[in-house]
Amino acid sequence: MNTLRRVSALMLLAALPLTAAEEAAAATAEGREFLFAAPEWLWALLLLLPLLFLRRRAGAVAAVTHPTIRFAADKMARPSTLAGRIGPLLFVAAAACLILALARPQWLNRHEEQKVSGIDIMIACDLSGSMSMQDMIFTVEDERGRSRRVPIDRLTAAKHVINEFIEGRPNDRIGLVGFAGKAKLCSPLTLDHGLVRHIISQFYLASADRFGRERAGYIEEDGTAIGTAIASAATRLNARKETKSKVIILVTDGINNRGSLAPTEAAKQAAELGITIFTIAIGQDERISRYTADVDTFDSKTLKEIAHSTGGKYYHASSGEKLQRAFAQIDRLEKTDAKRRVILSYEELFYLPLGLAALLLALGIGLNYTLPRPAP
After folding, report:
1. How far apart are the first and last CA of the chain?
2. What is the rounded distance in angstroms from the CA atom of residue 222 to the CA atom of residue 236?
3. CB 97 within 8 A of CB 320
4. 200, 173, 205: which is closest to 188 by C-alpha?
5. How far apart are CA 199 and CA 176, in angstroms?
6. Phi and psi at residue 347, to the nearest 5°
7. Which residues partner with 337 through β-bridges?
C-alpha cells in the first residue's frame, strides 16, 4: 500500500510542468512528502482505458428511406462533429479527476523538534613546563600501513585528545581554563566549539631559541596552581544557574605548588555548588630518584580525593591510548539529555482534482447542448 502511494505520487509529479515538479522536489527535501490517503481508488483509472477505445468503434448506420430529400436540404443545419469528438474525452477526463479526488491527494508535512538539555563543561588544562616531557606514546600507521609507537609531549597529547572530546559533544557548552603558576580563563562557556578548539591549538610552553633566549609560555608564571584552576572553572560554571549538570575536567601532570587555595578545599566548594570534577593525571609514573621512591611526579592522592569528594572519577593516563580511554569514559558517564518529537500534519488537496472534474463535466455538457449533433 505504501509503495502504491509513492508510485502514484511520482506519476502525478511527472505529469506536472517542470517548474512545479522542481518545487515539489524542493518541498520534499524540506520535510514535505506528497502521497495519497486512499491509493486503492487509483486502480479505477484502468477502467477508463476501455472507454477511450470503445468510443472509436462505428455504431449502427442510421438512414431515412425517402426518394429524395433535396427539398429539405436548405432547411437543415450543417452537423458538427466537435461534440462527438471532444465530448467523450472531456467526460473521461472528468471521471479520472473524480477518481483522483477519491484517492485524496495530500501533502504530508513533517516537523521535527529536538529538545536538548546540554551539560556545562569546563576543561582545566595544565600548561606548566613539565608538560613538555615526551613520554606519551601513540600508536600510528606509517605510509605503508605499518603500526609504530611514537612518543610525543604531554601537552600535544592533551590538546589532541581534548579536541576529539569536544567534537563529540556538539550540544554542550564548553569552556577552557589554562593554568600553570596561575589560572587564566581562555574561553567562557560557549557552543562555538570551533573557537574553543582554535584557542587550544594556540597553547604553547616556555622554550628557548637557538641563541639561548627564553620564551615565556602561554601562562608566563611557571608552576602548578591546581586549586586556583578549580576555583576559576567553578566560578564560571556557577554563573549559569539554569544548567542542571556541571562538570570540570582537570588535566595535570604535577603537584599543587602555587596559589593560596588548596585543591581539596577548592573541590569541597565546587561540590557544594553541585559541580562534578574528573581528574586526569597525565604522564608516566616515574620516581624522581632512588631516594624519593615513595614520591610520585604527580599528586595522585590529592587528585583522587578531589574526584571522590565531588562525585567524579580519577584517571591515570600514562600513554596516549589511556588518555583517550579516560576521555571516552567521561564521555559515556556524562550524557546529554536529548528528546526528539516528530509532528506530522496533512494538507488535503482533493478539492483540486474535484474542481477540475466539475469544470470538465460542465464543458462536456455545454458542448452537447450548444453544438448540434450529426443528424441520423
Report:
1. 49
2. 23
3. no
4. 173
5. 9
6. -115, 110
7. 117
How much is the pTM? 0.60
- Alpha-carbon distances, residue 166 vs 97, 114, 185, 207 (angstroms): 57, 21, 17, 28
Sheet order of strands, 337-348 included: 32-36, 105-117, 337-348
CA dist 232 and 238 (Å) reads 10
Give Cβ neighbours of residue 13 (< 8 Å, ≥ 6 apart).
21, 24, 25, 34
What ranges make up the beta strands (E) of the chain? Answer: 32-36, 105-117, 120-126, 136-141, 147-152, 173-179, 183-190, 207-208, 214-215, 246-252, 275-282, 314-317, 337-348
DSSP 334: S
- The residue written with cell numbers 562555538 in the block is 192
Instruction: Give CA separation, 126 vs 47, 82, 214, 217, in Å.
Output: 80, 92, 20, 12
CB 42 within 8 A of CB 8: yes
Q: Read off φ and ψ for residue 77, nearest 5 degrees.
A: -80, 150
The DSSP 8-state label assigned to residue 61 in this structure reads P
Q: Which of 316, 300, 222 is nearest to 263 (CA)?
A: 300
Q: Assess contact for 374 and 90: CB atoms under 8 A.
A: no
φ, ψ (nearest 5 deg) of residue 348: -70, 140
Cell of 361: 463535466
- Please give the distance of CA 55 from its chain centroid, rounded to a whole number: 57
Query: One-letter amino acid identity for 335?
Result: K
- From the first residue on, what is the mean pLDDT of each consecutive set of 10 residues in the chain (376 residues)? 42 36 38 87 84 59 55 53 69 88 89 72 93 86 80 92 92 93 94 94 82 79 93 93 88 90 94 95 65 57 94 91 91 71 83 90 80 53
Coil, strand or helix at 112:
strand
Q: At which residue does the C-alpha cell 580519577 appear?
A: 314
